[in-house]
Amino acid sequence: MAWEQVLLLAIFSRQQYLFADAQNFRNRMMLVHEALKCKDVCGDVLKRLDQGKGSNDILEMLFQHPSIWRKSLLHAIEEKGIAFKADQGRCPYSYYAMYMILRDPVRVFQSLRGLESLSVNERVVKTYQRLHAGPFRMPFNTSPLHADDLTLDALVDLLEENGNPVKGEELTLEVKGQLATDIGRYLRGAFEYLTWHHPDQPLRYEPATLFRDMCTTTRDRQTLTLSFDVTQLDNLVNLGQIESVMAGVKSEILNAFNHSPAVRFSGQPENQNFASVIDSLSDWYMTVNTGLLKKIERVPQLIAAVLDFDLRYEIGVGDRYWGSVPLSQFRFRLISRDYNQLVSGIIRHKLYLAAQYSDLADVSLFTYQSVDEFLERIANTEDNPLPVSTLMKTWADPEPGPMIERFKKLPAWLKPSKQKEYAKDKIAQQRRKSQDCPYPINSLFPLPLWATLKE
User: Fold this and answer.
1) Does residue 8 contact residue 97 with C-beta atoms inside 8 Å?
2) With contact defined as beta carbons under 8 Å apart, do 304 and 317 qualify?
């Protein structure tokens, strides 16, 4: 689900440059870029963009805005000739999300790359150790069953030798619940990056259920109050999830009167309460998936298609004004093989051998004499690298022959001269199917990216 949602957004945003309305879209992206420099007016500009307002309406708002930042933004609009008509069709995504996935998709891809580090075997071992650590969890426990480097095979052998009983159902629920929590944390990081927050509002990466995000419950001696965030409630209703909302209300009422499963002393539900989340999300996705990713191995191929499109046409990552690799700054002419090498190098150094996130942006692109020099620079930023990505291995291979053959087989989503499918149709299809398929709002995972705006 996670990769499909992010790649749908990435492809949809780039396909806007293939339509007759491309110049209007480009100007909207430029306005987002300039508005982000003016924090006190940025939120109001983004809101009107998402409402489909044209540049004249936004100018009228800015002329009346009390912030001193409005003058800077008005000057930038005039200087860069930013003008566009009202958007009658309404995008399924926020303009901020489209700008961010255009400017620096690699950062979002790196967030999801972390999902590969989630080892089920390791979690089985750690969960067993935690469940059998005793009430005080003494750090000097010398039992082989509590060794830090214990593997799953070794755990099974020790349990068989000692004849120790295993509560299989309890262990399974704990492991699935912990995985749901960990996956939710990675998705929160990726999706939060695509959501605008006021600069004074910190990002929140700790996962919480959708219902807890939306509803605050307070109780005094005579009153129980459930307060809803209207925007989030509206999103769920538009997603056809009113029954799921009512189920959440029932759960909150039972919890208020101590008729629900126990919670930890910190107020967080036990992992076992989240065990069903993965199954529920899997059922939802199997029903509404778009077919964009028929197998996970297709992810790096679509990433390569996105980066290749950006660099060849100097949009998104390659945009001269706000892209993270503005190719117009190179002082040499690129041939087709150079683009292949650039894309493969970015995948290799930022997704296959990736360290913690480092920006691709380099203010001195004009100093390089070749693509090799540029790739050598981004390779040298890799301190304390993470384990390599098995998923990205093939597309990180710099060998010229296989590399050229891979790029000949890129999917047609972003090839202007070829018959293609459109992401907007896939999104509309998924939206329709979701009306009849419950989305578990007890989930730690965020809503689909297209579900944050009304149709």
Assistant:
1) no
2) no
Q: pLDDT digits over 213-232, tens only?
A: 889 889 888 899 999 988 88
CA distances from 288 to 45, 291, 309, 386, 420 (A): 33, 9, 28, 33, 21
Which residue type occupies 282?
A: S
Interatomic CA distance for residues 15 and 416, integer angstroms: 9
Tokens linked to 410: 């890129």
Nearest to 192 by CA among 206, 172, 177: 206
Read off the pTM: 0.86
Rg (alpha carbons) of the chain, rounded to whole number:
25
Structure tokens at 180: 């749901």
> What pLDDT is attached to residue 356?
54
Instruction: Name residue 178's amino acid.
Output: Q
| Residue at 229: amino acid letter | D
Other CB atoms within 10 Å distance of the CB of residue 129: 18
The 8-class DSSP code of residue 206 comes to S
Structure tokens at 422: 């459109």
Helix (H) or strand (E) holding 216, with range, is strand 215-219
Tokens of 390: 């098995």
Q: How many CA atoms lie within 13 A of 296 on its CB side?
A: 11
Query: Taking a C-beta distance cutoff of 8 angstroms, is the pair 330, 366 a contact?
Result: yes
Residue type, 78: E
- Torsion sign over Cα 414, 378, 295, 177: negative
Q: How far is CA 335 from the centre of its chain?
A: 32
